[in-house]
Amino acid sequence: MDMHTVVVGTSGTTAEDVVAVARHGVRVELSAAAVDALAASRLIVDALAAKPEPVYGVSTGFGALASRHISTDLRARLQRNIVRSHAAGMGPRVEREVVRALMFLRLKTVASGHTGVRPEVAQTMADVLNAGITPVVHEYGSLGCSGDLAPLSHCALTLMGEGEAEGPDGTVRPAGELLAAHGITPVELREKEGLALLNGTDGMLGMLVMALADLKNLYTSADITAALSLEALLGTDKVLAPELHAIRPHPGQGASADNMLRVLAGSGLTGHHQDDAPRVQDAYSVRCAPQVNGAGRDTLDHAAVVAGRELASSVDNPVVLPDGRVESNGNFHGAPVAYVLDFLAIVAADLGSICERRTDRLLDKNRSHGLPPFLADDAGVDSGLMIAQYTQAALVSEMKRLAVPASADSIPSSAMQEDHVSMGWSAARKLRTAVDNLARIVAVELYAATRAVELRAAEGLVPAPASQAAVAALRAAGAEGPGPDRFLAPDLAAADAFVRAGGLVAAVEPVTGPLA
Questions:
Q1: Which residues carry this modification: 2,3-didehydroalanine (Ser) (predicted)?
Q2: CATH of the domain at 93
Q3: Which are the contacts of 314, defined by CB distance < 8 A and separation ≥ 6?
Q4: Considering its fold, how many domains does the chain have in total?
Q5: What distances in angstroms separate CA 421 from CA 65, 231, 399, one per listed residue?
Q6: Taking the CB of residue 72, how many other CB atoms lie within 10 A of it?
Q7: Same domain for 244 and 196
Q8: Averaged pLDDT for residues 102-128
Q9: Are 27 and 162 in contact (CB under 8 A)?
Q10: What does the alpha-carbon distance between residue 115 and residue 185 come to, in Å, rounded to a whole number?
Q11: What is the DSSP string of 276-332?
Q12: Mean of the pLDDT values across residues 124-151?
């Protein structure tokens, strides 16, 4: 294997592999062990298919129709039909990276040797990924139980050369044309294969893995913006002392406090909290930043443990066991993944909320300890960042709505056979929106805090070296500094792009060392 290839084996995969394939187009290949496992499990399925006794998914119908035994001459049609009928998604197209994660994670489970799929089907899945062909998958169609059924069905439809897909050039064409253009032969599904291609938690898991990668960057970025806001408000860094956090030993809290302390090292602004008026303590949004950011960090760690377990899983029903049995099970239920997806939406909303409170404090002349109203150049003539905070507040309010758990809901389906579902796909979809919003919220705080720090510097107070590095990098990225009112949206967009690309963390780490 080289750095441009991810090998799919029999023992799960890593979060880094998912991100590499989904976002960066890294190639995949099947290991020799995976090919052997696929062949061995297929022999078991073929032997069962030859017997007169009905076996779910091999020689029966599906879901509430599982009581019907399907004759040999109808079984290929049965597998084609489950894909065609289940490819019933509606609504907007799902993002390319989500579909690639979906396909890659299904390939991971297929390659485990527990699904009974033939090696050539798995190889076709890898070939489609490597060709940059992305099935058209729609927003609605998964209840997060019995797998992400409609999304995975649209992917399986492409393997059959049916439906629509996006080519590597971004053009949507009939899937059969795209397969032919890349020399890929459509698969002809046999017993159990149609079912095995759509019976997993792959969509919600892929979105969880990518959300964790994004949130790690955003939590470190929010530690930096909290430090910048503390500095601009002439707050005290004494509350960040390690001995204070050691007596409440939540790991995330200690990590966030340490990040903030390192950003503020050498600041000439901190410790002036009683110069203009008696201030025994800073406001909660400043003083409690490590506690809030840290609790979110600990939630990310818990979610990463759950994601790791799911990445090591083989989710299918029925499943082929090493002793030759093919057993029905409920491992396709998305509850473990759905719960942490919802948990992440809650902590992301709260992180956005505390960021917005610090921004509002920076803009309010009654609470900013000497900063101009709204950080404006000529307040009254200029409105400064007044409406940037409105935008941030609107995003925070939406995040609170997105924090309502999807997994607390359930709706029966399949004639009451599937009478409790996880709604994990819905939890994942709203989390993606929440993460997107959080990046914008952190960017607005960064934009306000850097402007406020520059205004303090103009008064003769010297910001911390890390703060100076953050300001310089943000300005170089196209977000301008203090001055008369101007068209503000481009500056905010530049700050947003800077934050989500990891630019803020990269700017300060040469000064602070690696941040948690």
A1: 146
A2: 1.10.275.10
A3: 109, 112, 114, 115
A4: 2
A5: 18, 48, 24
A6: 10
A7: no
A8: 96
A9: no
A10: 22
A11: SS--SS--HHHHTHHHHHHHHHHHHHHHHHHHHHHHT----SSEE-TTS-EE---TT
A12: 95
**Euclidean distance between CA atoms 485 and 268, whole angstroms:** 28
Query: Whole domain around residue 506: which residue ranges?
Result: 207-410+421-512
In a 3-state reduction of DSSP, which class is residue 389? Answer: helix
Clarify whether residues 141 and 233 are in a common domain.
Answer: no
Instruction: Give the residue carrying structure tokens 């709604």.
Output: 423
Which of 178, 200, 222 represents a domain boundary (last residue)? Answer: 200
Separation of alpha carbons 156 and 189, rounded Å: 10
Q: Which of 121, 201, 203 is nearest to 159 (CA)?
A: 121
CA distance 320 to 276: 72
Predicted TM-score (pTM) of the model is 0.95
What is the per-residue pLDDT for 3?
Answer: 56
Among residues 200, 225, 246, the one where a domain terminates is 200
Give yes or no: residues 167 and 219 share one domain.
no
Distance CA 267, CA 411 (A): 55
- In this prediction, residue 269 carries a pLDDT of 95
pLDDT band at 1 (very low <50, low <70, confident <90, very high): very low
pLDDT of residue 181: 98
Return the exposure string of 247-271: e unless at least 16 CB atoms fall within 10 Å of the residue's CB, then b: eeeeebbbbbbbbbbbbbeebebbe
Q: Letter for the amino acid at 429?
A: R
CA-to-CA distance for 385 and 451, rounded, in angstroms? 10
Mean pLDDT of 224-239: 96
Cβ neighbours of residue 152 under 8 Å, at least 6 residues apart? 102, 106, 197, 198, 199, 200, 202, 203
Q: What is the mean pLDDT of residues 163-171?
A: 97
pLDDT (average), residues 141-152:
92
Half-sphere exposure of 234 (CA within 13 A, CB side): 19
Give the domain CATH number at 243. Answer: 1.20.200.10
Of the chain, the end-to-end C-alpha distance in Å amounts to 30
Work out the average pLDDT over 105-119.
Answer: 95
* Alpha-carbon span 455 to 435, nearest angstrom: 30
Q: How far, in Å, CA of 214 to CA of 208, rounded?
A: 10
Residues designated catalytic: 56
What percentage of the chain has pLDDT greater than the value 90? Answer: 85
Q: Are 360 and 283 in contact (CB under 8 A)?
A: no
Query: 353: which residues sit within 8 A by CB, 6+ positions away?
Result: 396, 399, 400
- Among 50-64, 104-118, 442-456, name the one with the lowest average pLDDT: 50-64
For the stretch 38-63, pLDDT in tens is 999 999 999 988 888 888 878 777 76
CA distances from 232 to 257, 271, 467, 495 (A): 17, 11, 10, 18
Alpha-carbon distance 385 to 383, whole Å?
6
pLDDT tens track for 389-443: 999 999 999 999 999 999 999 999 988 888 899 999 999 999 999 999 999 999 9
